[in-house]
Amino acid sequence: MERRAAAHRDRPSYGHDALITCDRLVRVFTTDGVEVQALQGLDLTVQEGEMMALVGASGSGKSTLMNVLAGLDVPTAGAARVAGRDLLTMDAKVRLNYRREVVGFVWQQTSRNLLPYLTASQNVALPMQLRGRGGPRSTRPARAAKGERTKELLAMLGVTDCADRRPHQLSGGQQQRVAIAVALANSPSVLLADEPTGELDSATGEEVFAAFRRANEELGTTIVIVTHDQTVEHEVRRTVAIRDGRTASEVLRRTEIDAQGQESLVAREYAMLDRAGRLQLPAEYTAALDMEQRVMLELEQDHIEIWPDGTTGQERS
Ligand SMILES: Nc1ncnc2c1ncn2[C@@H]1O[C@H](COP(=O)(O)OP(=O)(O)OP(=O)(O)O)[C@@H](O)[C@H]1O
Question: Rounded to an integer, what is the distance from CA 282 to the centroid of its chain?
Fold first, then answer.
């Protein structure tokens, strides 16, 4: 008993090795005395260097989660850590620093990503200039380094030819690729994107996802994308579904090579078991078996069986 207690005590804490950890995250909004629980004890970990997608029905809590991770909103309860920063206890100064240096974001509305009166190059250089403000006057080599980084980012994202154009002179896809360059300017640990292809046609959307993948592969930046776009399935190895303010299921994809050397993508869906042991069963499964309120569980040697209430022992055996 003592040994078991010690093993439990010495177990590493939840998400200790992850870059992003959300632990029983709660966000309650109160409007005119009515409470909305946008996040209801959400658990999520994202490893450093991962590129993953968050999906879910409208109102499931995706944008609320993104705003928390972006440092724009503070959760009501639970714990959230990104790159070692505690998102619940940051003061205003640390929060500003976090938004400038630790996270970058790309929003759906292109007008929210770029300043209309600046060229693409100037938009990319701006976060680097804002970061340097307050310190000693920028030296010529420091300015040259920022110019060099701007060029490199625009080249990596395939928009070098857009450098001297203003946003209204760019297509929607070009605007979003420049927006990715802006978000990467200060080498953030995490890039967050909320419906970045929402206003684009599917071919242009694919180009934007490819730009995210390039940033992930070439710079190693961890990327979290909220999307309704089905094409994301071909771009990310992990998709987490959010339902009613909690992570509900997860699809992992991996490449398998058969005996003939043929490559194929194999996808496997998992249900999420939260920290309290709660499991969300897919609505279509519970509806198919008329499962409501109560189910029976049986522990077998290597799995657990779930039966509708009222199933007799004879039926189960
Ligand atoms: N500032 C707010 N004040 C009150 N309620 C809010 C606020 N922001 C979000 N909500 C509510 O919280 C719930 C989750 O909203 P959220 O925007 O996170 O969902 P979503 O999954 O991003 O939806 P969509 O895909 O439509 O953007 C919804 O019921 C929404 O109405």
Answer: 22
Report whether pLDDT(241) > 80. yes
What is the pTM (predicted TM-score) of this model? 0.87
HSE (side-chain half, CA atoms, 13 Å) at 237: 13
Contact 124, 185 (CB under 8 A): yes
Is 59 close to ligand 1, i.e. is its CB under 6 Å away?
yes
Q: Cα Rg for the chain, rounded, in angstroms?
A: 23
Task: Using alpha carbons, list the distances in angstroms from residue 219 to 204, 246, 292.
Answer: 22, 30, 48
Output DSSP code: residue 135: S
- The residue contributing the CA closest to ligand 1 atom 5 is 29
Confirm or reject: Cβ of 61 under 6 Å from ligand 1.
yes
| In contact, 73 and 162? CB cutoff 8 Å | no
User: Using a 6 Å cutoff on CB, does residue 227 contact ligand 1?
Assistant: no
pLDDT, residue 140, reads 59
Q: Is the CB of 58 under 6 A from ligand 1?
A: yes
pLDDT digits (tens, 9 = 90+) for 191-215: 999 999 888 888 888 899 999 999 9
Inform me whether the pLDDT recorded for 136 exceeds 60. no
Closest CA to 252 of 268, 264, 234: 268
Ligand 1 proximity of 63 Cβ (cutoff 6 Å): yes
Q: Assess whether the C-beta atom of 117 lies below 6 angstroms from ligand 1.
A: no
Q: Go through the domains of the chain in sequence order and give each one's CATH number.
A: 46-70+90-271 (3.40.50.300), 286-316 (no CATH)
ipTM here: 0.96
pLDDT at 282: 83
Mutation to probe ligand 1, out of 26, 29, 107 (largest number of atoms < 8 A from CB): 29
Largest CA-CA distance found in the chain, in angstroms, rounded: 82
One-letter amino acid of 275? R
Residues 105-109 have a mean pLDDT of 89
Q: Do 157 and 177 touch, CB atoms closer than 8 A?
A: yes
Q: Is the pLDDT of residue 297 over 70?
A: yes
